Amino acid sequence: MPTTNSPTRKTTSTGNPEIRHDWSLAEIEALFALPFNDLLFRAQQVHRTHFDANSVQISTLLSIKTGACPEDCKYCPQSGHYTTGLDKEKLLEIEQVVTQAKAARKAGASRFCMGAAWRSPREKDLTVVLEMVRQVKALGLETCMTLGMVDDAQASRLAEAGLDYYNHNLDTSPEYYGEIITTRSYAERLDTLASVRQAGMKVCSGGILGMGEAPRDRAALLQQLSRLDPHPESVPINMLVKVAGTPLEDVADLDPIEFIRAIAVARILMPKSHVRLSAGREQMNESTQALAFLAGANSIFYGDKLLTTGNPQATRDRALFAKLGLHPERRNTCHTEEHAQTAIGSALQQQSNQSRAAALAYDATLA
Ligand code: SF4
């Protein structure tokens, strides 16, 4: 046990890390400052207390409305404030979305995430979106949406339609936030998260690293997330994907080790949350991704697209999962016989222990 140099931590009587919402910035910075091996060891201890360490939740993300967003997020090629050459798309038809969701389900995804580049959904769009939720949910998939800001009433309607998760990222620290976005306040983001929680939906919220922020901003972002009570069920930790035409296209690269440290600290602060290795994965080599899983990341996006940035191809994911002995997290809902036949969980039961990781990785990444 690496007790020297470790920040003091409270533990329950069973030795499990407490679920805390009162981490101080100094405590979090002390975690970041741990020797790398000690930090990863501690993150692994927390991770193994709450999760199968070799299980990775897989989500698929579809952009249901692309580009021309009125917000000015400096990292985002979908912002209408920047010229990035992005092809804009109107809100997809419901049938198109359902077709994509079926393909994702067949490929082994357990959650289907739908993203729209809006400041907040208009009434006529929300009506369509609610029907998308109902139809995707009926396929037996968990549903997630990111539609910009929502108020209490909109969140309630999404929840009633069957939406499981709502994604709304905090992006960065409150202190650095004004350098990245000016058209939406940090307080408005927190209000949306409160509305989502109040409506009974699960929260997906994280941030983006490598936007020129200071180390303290990374600690402060994680502090903000850990203050949410309950913690977000999903915490996407993104590495900036630099897109030509956005104000951040030439920002200095973040050292991958610093990125891994942030994953590990997120795992320690939010022990029961799924920490998602999210945007920027395509730019990471296998070693960095392996370290991220070791640090406690246990969720990825699968598919050819992550909103408008690339995502590793199916064959690369399949190979990496097999190499690392990882397997997709089992879905906990199988509403139809067809689904049950194709679900990862069924495959699990049919495989020997020795071969099942590789087989499942294959199932999960079938194109
Ligand atoms: S991150 Fe979202 S809100 Fe910000 S510009 Fe992009 S699509 Fe719009």
From TrEMBL:
Binds 1 [2Fe-2S] cluster. The cluster is coordinated with 3 cysteines and 1 arginine. Pathway: Cofactor biosynthesis; biotin biosynthesis; biotin from 7,8-diaminononanoate: step 2/2. This is Biotin synthase. It comes from the Bacteria. GO terms for molecular function: 2 iron, 2 sulfur cluster binding; 4 iron, 4 sulfur cluster binding; biotin synthase activity; iron ion binding. The gene is bioB. [2Fe-2S] cluster binds at C113, C144, C204, R276. It comes from Candidatus Halomonas stercoripullorum. PROSITE patterns: RADICAL_SAM. Homodimer. Its EC number is 2.8.1.6. InterPro entries: Aldolase_TIM, BATS_dom, Biotin_synth/BioAB, Biotin_synthase, Elp3/MiaA/NifB-like_rSAM, rSAM, rSAM_sf. Belongs to the radical SAM superfamily. Biotin synthase family.
